[in-house]
Amino acid sequence: MARILILEDERAINDLVALNLSMVGHTTVQAFTGAEALKAAAIHPIDLMIIDVMLPDTDGFTVCEKLKGTPAIFLTALGETADKVKGFERGADDYIVKPFEMTELLLRVEAVLRRTHKSEQHYRIDDLDIDFEAKTVTKGGVPVDLTMQEYTLLETLVKNRNIALSRQKLMREAWDISFMGETRTVDVHVQRIRKKLGLDDRIKTVYKLGYRFEETP
Amino acid sequence: MKLRQKSYLLTVLLVAAVLYASMLCLLLPNIRMTIRSAEARALGEEKALALAIDGLFEKTPVRQRPVYARGFAVYDSGGATFALGSGDETWVATEPVPPVIETGRMQWVSQNGRTVLTIADRLSDGVWLHYGLDMTDVLHRLFWQTIGAVFLCTALAVGISAALYLLEDRINRPVERLAHELRTPLTVIRGYAELLERAKLTPEQQHQAASYIVTESERLGEISQKLLTLADTRKNVFRPERLSLPELAAHLQKTYPTLETEIGWDTLTADRALLLSLLGNLIGNAVKASAPGSPVLMKATPGVIEIIDEGGGMTEEQLRYVNDPSHAKNPGVRSGLGVPLCHEIAIMHRATLTYSSKAGEGTTATVSFTTL
Questions:
Q1: B206: Cβ–Cβ under 8 A, 6 or more apart, which residues?
Q2: Which domain, by its residues, includes A110?
């Protein structure tokens, strides 16, 4: 999984982002000042940086320029349009506006990693192997036949593992529509995935929320 | 911020440019000329010259006639060329007159060091009369007027935009700062609440998430309190009255038991609530900076109130921040509205608030009143 540098001077937000990213399997490096970030980046190669625009010792854009070549997502304040423009001019891959939804952040991270070919190729748990590149699933070495919707549903759950996703969210991801009404379809498909892959213990129903793929049952 | 300043400057410059252009357009009809060539031909040559010059003025309506533009004529009969200024002046032509291309065509002629706009008219074969206006002074004047106007407009534009910028800054900066400060608690509360709801956390992680939510909620409360105080100062509920300083000091001592006073100033005119809020803020900060139980001194001499503590003091960086209310983000102080608010209240009382401090030796906050 990717090694992600988080540069944010507010400890609470820095911890929050780190916790979320480690939840879905990323390795995180936390920095609170621009200088710390540069030092950390010199020690380990970084796949992606998440940078706050306003820092005590410098601003995020400067750090981003110094670490040119590393993909970057900016955390910015609501409505700072000028900042956004500046960010993209100076090499940001994406930005996210505070306050943000965590699943939104994970989605952006995944998108940038995929674009820069740093996202995970395989996910293995128990005797299950998901090949994200080929979009195929094998169980105990035997290919399992999944429909397109079933596969996308599984991928979304695994990429956001350990975090519960609402039925609406899953619906949007797997069917690519904002469907607000009938979400029973999701239940039906989740049932089928569980049955086909024997994932009853892994894909948990979270009361009143939706579903969660759990690494530690 | 910079962007806004630029746009102000551009707008004002544009308006100034348009104003100046329209002013020029009003001036231009003044340089239009009139010709009385038919009349001139009918008369003798010398009379024609005089007439041409007079006519020039005659045909230009009085109110449009530029007083500083003089008539001018060149009589060119092949060999003998002479030029005339308006009125009594007679010049000998110094430069050859440019060949005439077409009757009635205007051209610029330089003669006797003057710049003249002329029209040529044929009096007889090979005999030409160039007549028009001596524009030297007009051009001269126009040149300096343009330079003056450009200077004036630029100065005005810079001045107005700077004033607008400062005004807007004064009004919005504390609000912007508050909006900025709201984002962090909102992000944190939302994020950890989401985690608690959606993720399977260890008991330690749950505890951490909950405690972050609690502290950031407290921060929201603080910000809301500051917003209320700010709204009060904004409402311009500024009611100055005669206040007794010893009485104020006694009042403050009730809230801050470690406060010691040294009052050498009896009365001052100020808004009681705002002044108390200002002094309370300063004393509160001093108490926070001091070791528990150690005293904070409020010293008043005519025109000056000082709050002196013997706490940890501030670094130069922090000092620069507290003395400059427009600092974008405070490095050390957690919630940064208290200090700008103090500056605001001081400004309302035509007072200045300055801090002096040395790390390890304590801090002195000085409120100096300019008018008593």
A1: B196
A2: 3-115
